[in-house]
Design brief:
It is built from 15 helices and no strands. The protein is mostly helical. This is GerAB/ArcD/ProY family transporter.
Length: about 375
């Protein structure tokens, strides 16, 4: 595999952030350090991506379970891998549950939330049990199909007559307010795609390089400008915090005057169905591989074939149970808590892999 697949993963997470309440959290904290959190995130996340890449390069063709097997006893690596596997799954639960709510609200109010969620989970589950190389190939296909249209929508937003640049520039008065942990955690999620390499690094077979990592901060800066500035420009600095789905409402404010579909929001949602499903496939694939590594000694014979499907069935139960009980504010609160804990765990994981790589070099 070539290095450009790594950037597909990074770009995928920069796009999916809209579906996991990152803009909502940033807009809630827009007067309390949201801009500073984005400015701090660019060097922080770029450094973390670089350190993880350096660490993984010392273990060519290996994923996190193999690295931990070389360095940690079973009583340490098993609980850590279980924690990471479940944590990866939570991100999928949030994204797909959120999209089921959006489908019911904007596409067809008569849809059953459980039925929509089960459909998404079935598609994601089928993709997640494929081999890592297939997952990377599908990531490339969906990215190349969806990104040009998403880019077109973003250009249309920036050139729209409804864009009020004065509202965007007025955010400069709050640029130096110190960020909260929540806003920093939400902002760093835009770069989270690099962490998927802890499993998918297996497919790079020692060919992975950090030569082009300087592209990451540029991608992040453009993503922040788009994610944060466009809704403010459309709805105003004060009103943008009143919408539960600011980017969906923003897309619904635009029209294709000469298009087959007039309302941009329908095209926007269809594009993000593809991005959400791809995110779910990659994240659940990693989750399954981490959990397989945790229970490696207990899975033998025919169980090795059925174990991924058993895991998928177990991982699908919580969102199906919760989707009818949880509303959008509660899901936002849960997402905030998950993002806050994710950042601390991500930093610890990156530093661990980096230090293990240094140890292997000197051993």
């Amino acid at each position: 595999m070539k290095t450009h697949y790594f950037f597909y993963l990074v770009l995928m997470d920069m796009l999916i952030n809209i579906m996991v309440y990152v803009p909502d959290i940033l807009f809630e904290d827009r007067f309390n350090g949201a801009i500073m959190s984005m400015l701090l995130t660019i060097p922080l996340s770029t450094t973390l991506a670089y350190l993880l890449s350096i660490g993984l390069m010392k273990f060519p063709g290996m994923g996190l379970p193999e690295i931990f097997k070389l360095t940690f006893p079973v009583w340490i690596r098993t609980p850590v891998l279980i924690y990471l596997g479940i944590n990866w799954s939570i991100g999928v639960w949030i994204a797909l549950t959120n999209f089921a709510i959006l489908a019911k609200r904007y596409i067809n109010p008569d849809l059953s939330l459980v039925a929509v969620l089960l459909f998404f989970l079935a598609v994601v589950g089928w993709g997640a049990v494929q081999n890592s190389r297939t997952v990377l190939y599908v990531t490339e296909i969906i990215t190349l199909l969806n990104v040009p249209l998403i880019f077109f929508i973003m250009i249309k937003a920036f050139t729209s007559s409804y864009m009020r640049w004065k509202e965007i520039f007025s955010m400069g008065a709050f640029a130096f307010n110190w960020p909260t942990w929540s806003s920093l955690s939400a902002a760093t999620y835009l770069f989270n795609g690099y962490i998927e390499m802890v499993i998918l690094h297996r497919e790079f077979e020692g060919k992975f390089t950090t030569k082009y990592h300087w592209i990451i901060p540029i991608m992040g800066l453009l993503s922040f400008i788009t994610t944060f500035a466009v809704p403010i420009g459309f709805h105003g600095l004060m009103a943008v915090g009143d919408y539960p789905y600011p980017w969906v409402v923003t897309a619904d404010s635009m029209r294709f005057k000469l298009g087959f579909v007039e309302r941009v929001v329908f095209v926007f949602l269809l594009l993000y169905i593809g991005i959400s499903i791809m995110y779910g496939i990659v994240a659940w694939h990693n989750s399954i591989e981490l959990l397989k590594g945790a229970f490696e000694k207990t899975i033998k014979g025919q169980w090795q074939r059925y174990f991924p499907w058993i895991l998928l069935a177990l991982l699908a139960i919580p969102p199906c149970y919760a989707v009818e009980l949880i509303d959008q504010p509660k899901l936002l609160q849960f997402s905030r808590l998950w993002l806050n804990s994710r950042l601390a765990g991500e930093i610890a994981l990156v530093l661990t892999v980096y230090l293990l790589g240094r140890w292997r070099k000197t051993a």
